[in-house]
Amino acid sequence: MEKIVILTGAGISAESGLGTFRDEGGLWAQHRIEDVATPEGFARDPALVHRFYNTRRAQAVDAVPNAAHEALARLEAQHRGEVWIVTQNVDGLHEKAGNANVMHMHGALEGALCAACDHRWPAPLVMDPKDVCPSCGAPCTRPDIVWFGEVPYQMERIWQLLEQADVFAAIGTSGQVYPAAAFGQHAGRAGAHTVELNMEASVNVRDFAETRHGPASVVVPAWVD
Ligand code: BJW
Residues 118, 212: one domain? Predict the structure, then answer.
């Protein structure tokens, strides 16, 4: 059976009402990356960072999967055990749609992490700098999110999957953030058929053998079905 590895980014959740980062009016037009998405920003002003992620957590809790997420759930159901979703998204919409084989390389809004002892637990809807770690008691709780300068999760397994993939698809990602931005080239060189499904050509469009441009809710179901 074909092994299918799919990278998703913020564009797949745009039609579920969640803002992307780099589109016009996106999250990075409203917040400074250095302030809300780096460990240094969190050390300077944890309350600001918690407010940013509390707002996004509240939006994600209310969000529902769109036709693109649902198509990927069908794909996994049809090819049980042979489809891996590697998501940069922290919103949990793939699981809500029914995908089980999901790797959260940039963490998840529903997770809390202790910066002192690395203990992880389910995040409350509202996190606060005064929260203490349920394991070690340190007041160092943070969202379980991978910020700039930190190493994304499960990388060893992800590189391995990319090398074994027969098909690699990148959906709804601008291709500006590494290491995810290198996955298309890596999988293609290892022999995978590579497909980009995005609203517009990403900066890495030349790494893909096939491209389908348009809204994810249209191009993803058309690719899957
Ligand atoms: C639609 C649509 C619709 C819209 N339908 N499509 C210099 C050179 C190279 C690398 C570096 C460098 N300097 C620093 C680095 C490393 C750095 C990096 O890449 N920086 C770049 C900015 C240059 N990377 C890191 O620090 C990473 N760690 C790392 O590299 O560790 C070292 C290491 C790794 C591996 C092995 C060994 C060592 C960590 C990166 C952490 C990123 N974190 C963030 C925020 C946290 C998560 C969160 O808060 O949600 O993750 S940043 C933000 O960008 C978020 C996203 O996951 C990520 C990617 O964004 P995405 O998903 O692509 O969204 P957009 O908005 O950019 O694009 C949306 C796309 O959708 C657009 O193309 C639209 O057209 C499209 N679209 N509507 C279809 N309806």
Answer: no
Active site residue ranges: 106
Residue nearest to atom 21 of ligand 1 (CA): 177
- Which tens digits make up the pLDDT trace of 91-115? 999 999 999 999 999 999 999 999 9
Please state the residue numbers annotated as binding site: 9-28, 53, 56, 88-91, 114, 117, 133, 136, 172-174, 198-200, 216
Q: How far is the CA of 105 from the centre of ligand 1 (A)?
A: 11
* ipTM of this predicted structure: 0.96
What pLDDT digit, counting tens, does each position of 115-150 carry?
999 999 999 999 999 999 999 999 989 999 999 999
**Is the CB of 63 inside a 6 Å radius of any atom of ligand 1?**
no
The enclosing domain of 34 has a CATH number of 3.30.1600.10
Distance 175 CA to ligand 1 centre (A): 7
Residue 49 contacts by C-beta under 8 Å, 6 or more apart in sequence?
A: 35, 36, 41, 42, 142, 143
Residue nearest to atom 11 of ligand 1 (CA): 178
Q: In what order do the strands lie in the sheet with 102-104?
A: 102-104, 83-87, 4-8, 167-171, 193-198, 210-213
* Residue 6: count of CB within 10 angstroms of its CB: 27
Q: Which domain holds residue 33?
A: 19-62+108-145
Q: Is 66 in the pocket of ligand 1 (CB under 6 A)?
A: no
If asked whether residues 131 and 222 sit together in one domain, one would say no
Phi then psi for residue 112, to 5 deg, are -120, 150
Q: What CATH number is given to the structural domain containing 72?
A: 3.40.50.1220
